[in-house]
């Protein structure tokens, strides 16, 4: 079982961000964490059988580092009942709020993987994105995490922003190579509804060639691509939590705006913080059909190195897959189908499933 915890507080709202997060609800933090604890206890008791343990835990947001380290104590007391020495526990954080005390506290609680929302080491680009930190602060926070003892550190980078070039992005990645980072999440900017960038098409660069240049440069410098936006130095450095999603494993979702999916039932807790606090165990339900699961396995499998088993497809779909294999678009090995080019994932999935 996987576990996701959502912390919906942020110091500032990034112009590209469509995640459920708030910059004006800080007075509700303590009440929110109590509600989070209540739902977490309910979900764990409901979904975790005897001798069943959490494979991964992921604390995301929002910005988890905007909540005081002390306010996580009861959350980790609950988690500790279901974790093992092999449980991957990740927290996201932002450089401006991930203080030395906060990082040390997370390490003491058992967090063994940390993900920094850096996005760029260019101060002008950070301002354009409305990030709350600068390059110097990002470098310092990453170095602090390493000094404390975190040896699995991810850095988020956004590319495809107005003004980006391969040379400017190369500077970002060269900075990463000089730091104790073994995982990179490099996301192409998307213009999502409800964000400040949504109606500003000029802010986004659509340049497939730029993506290929970035992928090749990361590969040349020891970071292997295992998903369309994720790169790691070694197999052990990959995100086990994300792989769980891509493999369609059951996951518990806790928090305002989280999503959970257990035994083909997907559920959505209240997004509005006040409503969530008043009833954290109330949510909308979506029942997935067998066809829904197959579609998601194909879509997700083609976006990462996990692939999918050909035997989940019907005869017509298998014919299309074999056609793609003959045209050297896909690879088959032991009945598993693998994609050679993750950027073509959606196009290939559409061809197979239509």
Automatic annotation (TrEMBL):
Cofactor: [4Fe-4S] cluster
GO cellular component, one term: cytoplasm
Keyword tRNA-binding attached: no
Pfam families reported in the protein's UniProt record: Radical_SAM
Location in the cell: Cytoplasm
Gene3D superfamilies from the UniProt entry: Aldolase class I
One Gene Ontology term from the biological process aspect of the record: porphyrin-containing compound biosynthetic process
Protein name: Heme chaperone HemW
Species annotation: Arcobacter arenosus
UniProt xrefs under SMART domains: Elp3
Superkingdom as given in the UniProt entry: Bacteria
Record-level Gene Ontology MF annotations: 4 iron, 4 sulfur cluster binding; coproporphyrinogen oxidase activity; metal ion binding
Domain Radical SAM core: residue ranges: 1-227
Family: Belongs to the anaerobic coproporphyrinogen-III oxidase family. HemW subfamily.
Function: Probably acts as a heme chaperone, transferring heme to an unknown acceptor. Binds one molecule of heme per monomer, possibly covalently. Binds 1 [4Fe-4S] cluster. The cluster is coordinated with 3 cysteines and an exchangeable S-adenosyl-L-methionine.
Keywords assigned: 4Fe-4S, Chaperone, Cytoplasm, Heme, Iron, Iron-sulfur, Metal-binding, S-adenosyl-L-methionine
